[in-house]
Amino acid sequence: FKQKTAYEIGVRLVGSEMCIRDRSRRGRRVTRFAGVGLASFVLDTVLVALLAALTGNLAVSVVAARLVSGGANFALNRAAVFRDSAVPVRQAALRYVVLAVAMLTANYVVLSALVGMGVALVPAKVATEATLFGLSYAVQRVVVFAVAAPGRPCEPSKQEADRHRDVVAVR
After folding, report:
1. pTM of structure
2. What is the SS3 assignment for 3?
3. Left, alpha or beta for 19 (phi > 0: left; psi -120 to 50: alpha)?
4. Mean pLDDT score of the chain, rounded to an integer?
5. What's 170's DSSP letter?
6. Nearest-angstrom CA–CA distance, 133 and 146
7. What confidence tens digit (pLDDT) does each residue in 23-61 have?
């Protein structure tokens, strides 16, 4: 059994604090992502209803509303959720469009399968959306906006360890 020095214990404490901060940051990012998704859903729903009332054409209303709400979703996710992205806007937008088409396809496939198995439409839709939410978040974080994951999440950076060592040395 090797006795730890105050410095070694202190560095571990800094690492623990960092681990808690990383989890907290990830939690806030997912919460903002969910908030943006909800806002986009509300915008899409209001626009579909408004455009359908004005035009009488459901297909045109759905497509137009989806284009507007999708654009808003992209802009809000870039600004509020993945603001640390270094991917150029044009490149991220192209990746987002590819993801949106893939998610629409996956949504239809999963929803059709669940309804085909006898699940009622609304519960099937909720299950589909819940399943695809995590996938959409992961793809946007890793591919669309390519946000770098922090280094080793529960270990202090060299600067934090040095700063802590200096504080311990002063005491």
Report:
1. 0.67
2. coil
3. alpha
4. 80
5. H
6. 17
7. 567 789 999 999 999 999 899 888 988 998 999 988 888
